[in-house]
Write a structure and sequence with these properties.
4-stranded mixed beta sheet; about 10% strand
Length: about 170
């Protein structure tokens, strides 16, 4: 499980900074989506380029989870880093509020975040299959899979009904 960090003595000077794993395909894919949500309000940088700026945070902590660091030095970790970006834009703000208020929600989302982190190579493949290779221009492949699955299911039901009627 990733360690929850609270504060750094080396905060970003202008705007919040989202630090992520720049060598992780899954991470880079979803960071592009986060950028679309947050616009210019957050600066995104890989830990490989940013870790040296935070002398009080060991590099291993950046490897564990994404970190959002605000201009006061407060650190939002893992799922709450994502929730905080949504909160800042007024999109599903309850997620960040629940994360801070409810221990059960924090434990659940930390567990789910860790599961995603442990399976990110597999989940990257799923993301590409569902949304396409370009995170900037996602395609609704998930809809095609859903429609195809429904069509196959309806065909099987029709075949079953037709077969039952002839007996």
């Amino acid at each position: 499980m990733f360690q929850l960090l609270e504060q750094t003595n080396f905060p970003p000077k202008v705007k919040p900074l989202m630090v992520y794993d720049g060598k992780c395909g899954f991470c880079k894919y979803w960071i592009i989506k986060w950028k679309k949500i947050s616009g210019d309000e957050i600066h995104y940088i890989s830990y490989q380029r940013a870790a040296h700026k935070f002398k009080d945070i060991e590099e291993k902590h950046f490897k564990e989870a994404v970190r959002l660091i605000d201009s006061s030095g407060r650190i939002y970790n893992g799922p709450d880093a994502a929730f905080r970006t949504f909160y800042m834009k007024g999109k599903v703000p309850f997620l960040h509020l629940w994360y801070e208020k409810y221990k059960w929600f924090r434990k659940l989302t930390n567990f789910l975040y860790q599961w995603v982190a442990d399976n990110r190579n597999f989940l990257f493949k799923i993301s590409v299959r569902l949304f396409g290779k370009s995170a900037r221009n996602p395609q609704p492949f998930w809809a095609y899979y859903l429609i195809g699955s429904i069509a196959i299911l309806l065909t099987l039901i029709c075949v079953y009904i037709a077969n039952s009627a002839t007996q």
